[in-house]
Amino acid sequence: MPDIKKPSQFDLDKSLSAQQLTLLGVVAEASGKRGMPLYLVGGFVRDLLLGSPATDFDLVVEGDAIALAQALAAQYGGRVTVHARFGTAQWFNPDFGHRALDFISTRLETYKHPGALPTVKPGRLADDLARRDFTINTLAVRIDGEYWGQLRDDLEGLKDLRGGLVRVLHPNSFLDDPTRLFRAVRYEQRYGFQIAPETLALIPPARPLIGSLSAERVRHELDLILEEEQAVAILTRLGELDLLQSVHAALEWNNPKRERFIRGLRLSQDGNSKPGLSSSGKSFLDWHFWLMDNPPTDINSIDQRLHFHAKLLESLLAASALFADVPTLAGMKKPSQAVTRLEGLPLTAVEAVFLSIPEGQARQNLHNYLEIWRHVKPKTNGHDLQKRGLLPGPRYRQILYRLRQAWLDGDVETESDELKLLEKLINLG
Ligand code: ATP
Ligand code: MG
Question: Ligand 1 pocket test: which of 137, 188, 216 has the largest number of ligand atoms within 8 Å of its C-beta?
Fold first, then answer.
């Protein structure tokens, strides 16, 4: 039986960058010489056909991926990392770009029970495509030797890509791997597609199985979603499909959250977010926009389900407390009061609340804290106090604190003002 159901030629040369072409050319030749069918697969092909090729290749070999990577290193140099257990290898050769190239052997996967990680065995390309999540991710382009550019479309991926449909490959797909529920919505909203009606009908019965997924797997999917440009649309759709509350009852999506999220995202992209503050990445900040109006008890409880990284949890709890405190913050007339409230909080927490609340006094205070107040320090330091004959002790901190307050609140405006105040404070004590 012929392997290829609908052979058609794909013009790779037109779609790839010169550097990608050189690299793939080398790999294609090496696999061709060894008679090893080699395919570009998955997201790379999907995005290539949609006209926005990604920079990362997914390559699968029908055969020994490790031997192929080693052969390339023998011929062209570079370094090979082997994962014998998974039958995968990485080839890194800086002459062909700064990225390592992954080689994966085509595999057959079976699921012991829903939510489990699959059991993996070597298989043919057809098996490898059949284990995938959606038809749009099953397209492959063969590149070895004379087969360069041959499109392989076993599962009607092209039709669904053209029709803008996200479709699972079989009715048990979501049961086998409930993370696909989140992936379906992510692709649907990212590309402005629709989940195919038959696939949509499979969602409600699969929902309860989300409970069988590990913390890491669900959190990973949610992180991927928050990294997306269309995060708001994805969360809205997940909310409509009741997929968020299946993760945790307190994981909600509603209009106030949506508005805050949109405002926060817009401002952080407008450059209001200073470099160094949200260095933690888009999803880190997005979690704050999403959860800051949940009370700390909710956040701790969601953390029981998702196991946030400690730094994120700490920052989310701080943002939640701060968000609840916004009315108080709005009433603070003196900068020193605001600084006392904000000092020591994770900066991302302060920044997230600043970015996502409406304009007003609280927002202004947060802005001033981030931009100005947190950098205000008195000229005097511990050394100076020592020189003045003060014995080191808690008084140092009190005095320096009072000096800083005076600068913050405008009671002191020059160095000589500060010295006068310093004299007064020393004489007082
Ligand atoms: P993205 O642009 O989001 O990276 P991608 O298609 O490259 O999209 P990856 O998560 O990098 O997605 O996965 C690569 C390929 O592996 C996918 O195209 C898909 O075919 C397959 N895959 C990934 N996750 C699953 C899953 N949970 N179930 C089945 N197949 C999956
Ligand atoms: Mg990818």
Answer: 137
